[in-house]
Each structure stands twice: as C-alpha cells, then as structure tokens.
Amino acid sequence: MSVKNCEKLEKSRVALTVEVDAETFEAAIEKAYRKVRNQVNVPGFRKGKAPRKMIESLYGVGVFYDEAINIAMPEAYAAAVESEKLEVVGYPEVELLDVGKDGFSFKATVPVYPEVTLGQYKGLEAPKAEVKVAAADVNQRLKDMAERNSRLVSVERKVKKGDVANIDYEGFDNGKPFDGGKGEGYDLEIGSGSFVPGFEDQIIGMKAGEEKDIDITFPEDYHKDLAGKAVVFHVKVNAVKVKEVPAIDDEFAKDVSEFDTLADLKKDIKAKMTADRQQAVDRAFEDDLMGKVADGITCDVPDAMVEEQAKRFVENLKLQIQQQGIPYDQYLKLTNMTEEDLLGQAKEPALRQVKLELAMDAIAKAESVEVSEEEISAEYDKMAEQYGMKAEDLKKYITADSLKAQLTNQKVVKIVVDSAKATKVEEKKTAKKTDAEDAEAGEAPAADESAEGGAQA
Question: For 46-62, how does the pLDDT look when each residue is reduced to its tens digit (9 = 90+)?
Fold first, then answer.
C-alpha cells in the first residue's frame, strides 16, 4: 500500500489516493477464491474443488476482483489513515479508480477532526443574577407543603365551587352511551376546569346521593367524534368533600420534617432554596460564558460531526418519550413529523454542541489540562457514595475514559469561569396593581389558564 496523494478539502475533509500493489492484491485474490469457491459451479468438479485457474479461465481473470477488493481495501484504507496521521470523525466515501493484475487504486474522501483557532476565552463578561430568597418565597414553599399534606374530608351539605365531588357519570349521544363517556368514583374538583365547559357548574348545588341529567354541548374544537355535539350526562354524586389543609405551626414542622419548630424548618427551607437558586445562577453564568467561547472559535466544522450529534439528540428524545410511556411512532403521528424532520430540527443545536466540544478540547490542549489516575479514582469513590454503589460496580457502567473526559471539561469550564467577570443583571421593574385596584377595575384574580377545557368523560 502506498498513499499517492493526500489533499485537504473544505468542511475539514481529506481526499486520500491509495494504491494497493500487485503482491497485496494477489494475496487478497487468493483469499477471495478460498472464500467463494464453494459457490462456483465448474463442470467435472465438485463444489469447492475446482482450481482457481480453471474458474478464472471459465469466468474471466477478474472473477474474484470484487471480493478481493472488499478484502484488501479496508486494511489499505486503515494503513493510509495511520500513515498520514489523520484523526477521522466519520465514514469515508470511496471511489475505485483502477483495477488490474498489477493491483488497484482508490480514492477515499473522509471527514477529519478540524483545526480549531480559539478566540477569547479568558476575561469574558456575562450577566449573573444576585440570589435572593424572600420570606414570601419561604412561606409559599410552606403553603405548597401544606397543600401536599392536606386531606379530603366528607361534609353533609350541597356542593360548592372549590369542593371535591366524588361522582359516577355516563354520557349519552341520542340516548346511546359513547366511548370514553363513563366513569365511577371519580373525584372532581369543582372549578378546576378539568371537565368539558358547563359540566362542573351544573354539579354545584347537588348533595350526596343525588342524581340528575346534565346537558352539555362539546366545543367545536373537540375531537371529531363529539365536536359540537349536544349530549346528556347522567351524574350521581356519591360524596361531597372539602380539602382540609393543616395549620402551619410547630406540629406541622414535626410531621413533615426532622425539625421540632417551624422556625428551624423555615431556616432549612431558605438554605436549600438559596443553594438551589445559586446552583441555577452559576449554571446559567457558565452556559453564557461557554456559549461565547464556542461562538469565538474559528473552525471548518465537518458535517459528519454535526450529523452524528443530531442523531444523538434524536436518540435521547426517543428515550425520554419512551420513559413517559409513549411509543415513538405514536409520538411522530401526534406531532405530524418524520424522523428526518426531527434530525433537521436538531442540526442547529447539534452544531452549537459540536462547536462547544471543539472549543473545550482546544482550551484543554492550550492550557495543558491533565487528569490524574488519583483524580479519576477519587471521582469513582465520590459517585459510588452518591449512588450507594461500590466503585468497582460503577466502573461497569462508566468507563475511565468517559470519566476522564468529564473531569477535563470541568477543569476547562473552571478556567473560563475563574477568569470571567460577572456583570449585574438589569431588573425589569413592573408596576403591580393592588387587590383594591383590581377590584376597582372590575377585574378578578387571574385563573390558571394552563388547563384545557377538555372533557374527562
């Protein structure tokens, strides 16, 4: 094998022109003959017993050339890549140039790791918010905790807005039950908007044990089988319940935490909220800085690297929707998309990710970043403790190379962040109307508009 030409092309590609000599090609032809001779029929010989020269005289001297090229070319290509010290990042496009008894030649065009010129990565500036946790934030967290620890208590009275009515129901279209229109023992919060518009309002005033028919017209934008139809729901109220929220006091603190007093619980909540918000602010600051670093590089990014990253994004999406119990093909139908559409959408974020990785690798080289075996071992121990595993077992799932790459990236980010300057975030000041001003204007408090008015039924 010999490399006759190595030409650099745009998009970080290299075109290799490679020649395979007669001796190497002859050895590959002999291998090809031994591999396929059982498939060749030659009169007077059992399958696999005909001499090579006999087969070549019957079918032509080039009868084994294709198979021989398939045998010899991968080794020749690998040797050429090693000879030219290329760091390939994708599969080659191969063109056969010439073939004969004296050997063959081919051209392989392959994407390679690009040359990266770093821009500024030290002394950058990015906005960084100041972390604040107000008393109102802590009180809201306590209210949320109280809500989660609330319980439903049955009451002997008529249903009011805000109550939870336990109901049986069945829907009829022209006197006939329709699919999905029946439920038993369903706890419906009146005013939640979880059922079709008009349904919950007609439950108000009913008592436990009472039954009645409710007239409902489905919205025009409902699914096609029921859109715009007038139907009747027969409803029975089994029980009327109210939410009993515990008082937020020392007893509450003891019930929901390891603390004996509400004051101690508040301190803990504030500390955890502060830590969470600080982590989010730090991460946003880092992301902003690293985005600037990635944007600052000069590099001819190969399409193969972007396409491979886009595929990884789509594979991660598949995993996420499968974890939610949604079949992938069903997701494509619901979103009216194809996998090609998803890959197309992923191209832009994939390019950003590739540029970020290239920038981080370049900084690691420029700063001679190294990760020792001791650091890798310590990280294994740290992760093992975090996940409640043995370090040796963890190594079955996380390779030393991947952990080394992770630690290297952490050091690179630290170099950028430690030299950066945090600028103040300009706060947007918005006038907030008081409840009295809202009342004077005839406005009610804003309701949660996130839930659609679709019928559970």
Answer: 878 889 998 888 899 99
